[in-house]
Amino acid sequence: MFTDEYFMKMAFQEAQTAFEKDEVPVGCIVVYNDRIIARAHNLTEQLNDVTAHAEMQAITAAANLLGGKYLINCTMYVTLEPCVMCAGALAWSQLSRLVIGARDEQRGFMSKNLSLHPKTEIVSGIMETECSALIREFFRSKR
């Protein structure tokens, strides 16, 4: 039996890869029937594209694999609360479940009083300490 922590560890590995590439360390995976169908991390610097967030990359990869635009019966694990742009894409994708590592009090969609698709279940705080620490370490190194 796979747990939320098990899958969040996989998303955290993606965040660590982003950190190593000098990208904001956000990692993400999409799971369907206990199987990882998409893995992604931020690529905004590498692609010189402000929309190349981990969530956007993962939505596209998962939809391509499933052969449709909706992520019904899928769970996304993301190390940092999605921004407004990503939340909009997640709402349109009709994602069934979103599991968040750390909250983003400044730029996260929940702090802007936005919501996802009405049927999307949201769980927050899985590996919050580790996810928050990685983000803090990244920005501390930039100052």
List keywords for this structure.
143 residues; alpha/beta; 5-stranded mixed beta sheet; 5 helices; 5 strands; 21% strand
Net shape: globular
**In terms of per-residue confidence, which ranges show pLDDT below 50 for 5 or more consecutive residues?**
none
Sequence of secondary-structure elements: HEEHHEHEEH
Helix content: 40-55%
Strand content: 15-25%
Main β sheet profile: 5 strands, mixed
Number of helices: 5
Q: Total number of β-strand segments?
A: 5
The radius of gyration computed from the alpha-carbon positions, rounded to a whole number of angstroms, is: 14 Å
Give, in spatial order, the strands making up the sheet with the most strands.
Answer: 2-1-3-4-5
Span between termini: 42 Å
Q: Decide which structural class fits the backbone.
A: alpha/beta
Mean pLDDT: 96
Write the layout of secondary structure elements.
Layout: H1 4-20, E1 27-32, E2 35-41, H2 44-47, H3 54-66, E3 74-80, H4 84-93, E4 97-102, E5 121-124, H5 128-142
Helix pairs in contact: 1-5
Descriptive overview:
This protein has 143 residues and is α/β, with parallel strands linked by helices. Helix content is 41%, strand content 21%. The protein has helices at 4-20, 44-47, 54-66, 84-93, 128-142, and strands at 27-32, 35-41, 74-80, 97-102, 121-124. The chain has a 5-stranded mixed sheet with strand order 2-1-3-4-5. Strand 3, helix 4 and strand 4 form a beta-alpha-beta unit. Helix 1 runs parallel beside helix 5 (128-142). The model has no long low-confidence stretch (mean pLDDT 96).
